[in-house]
Amino acid sequence: MSRPSSRPTSASASRKDTTLAPGRVLLGRFEVVCLLGEGGMGSVWLARHTALDMAVAIKVLGAPLSSESADESLVRFANEAKALARIDSEYVCRPLDFGTLDSGAPYLVLEYLDGVSLAEYARDRRLGIEQVTDIALQAAAGLAEAHRVGLVHRDVKPSNIIVTRGRGRPVAKLVDFGLSKALGRASITNAGRVVGTPQVMSPEQIRGTTIDHRTDVWSLGVVVFWMLTGTYPFDGVTTAALFASTLDDAPVPLASLRPDLPVDLVSAVDACFEKNPVDRMPWMGAFAARLAPFGSLAGKLAAEIALATHGSSTVTNSAPLRNTGLAALAAGSAVTAAATVVAPARIEPSPPSTVRMPTVISPEPHVDRGRMTVEFTTPTRAPSDAQSDQGSSLISKRPKS
Fold it and tell me: Fewest Cβ atoms nearer than 10 Å: which of 64, 272, 342, 365?
């Protein structure tokens, strides 16, 4: 992929120097080793912590998105660093440090993940029900912690989940909180635009109305559907057609594509696709409780973490949605997995916060329905998620030769 174009940010923060070079040392301790990858959002480099002799990843912000100013881009990147620092979960890629190059271009030092994106991991093997469930439960636990501190990821997709080689078993970790929204503060970008990747976007994201933690529930449901079938629950030749299908159509029946799946697993995934968030699976703990019976011990442990972690958060540019019956629904879900999962005693949704919402639609390679074959399309086509998504899974890719 070609080097991202450079645009000036401001008088105090030029983007002329957004690349690094092997041997360069940042913050006195992070020695750059090589380029891992680059894209429109910037570049990611492998580096070594000289004092601890461990690998880290350095994400350098590239040119601003076409939909935002340079200053907005800088603030968004800084917000990602702060957001990550607030999340305490083994299922989320950890930030280690933050700084700026001499030019003013910011960079984020991250935990280096020895693994591959879920998009690549699933492409190379057929995932069994237990494997799918474990990945979903670990992602749910990471998202539950993000929601607890008031963050909605808004772009949960296969390329934003890294499957690492830890503890003798694959462990899923969430990356790329660049589109996440910290709640309770003013928006840094213009209103009336949509944030996310079309295939995993919820109806409320498409409409540009209220979004909250249940938007991530929708998207994780899409990812689980994709892991089980190799395709997405909504389809369209163009992005507009895909959006129309998401807003108006019922999802492709999971049971028709996988008649071998347990009924309770199918119903748990289906519950993520209610158009109205009020009717949807209410929170990550509830989803985890429904999935837990189908996971391994590692998955069940992640489900316990998700159930023990609760935060209800809202991003809105209209009236906040009602959140009634949340405790009852979550408690009912917990009964399903009572033998393996401990439900929280009390759930109190946090007050909604009013924030204006921006829009970024990520062009993605197209994945043919029913197959894992990847072919690239132009941004005017309905894009799909794939392992080549830059700026997220790059922190786990092998060094370029």
Answer: 342
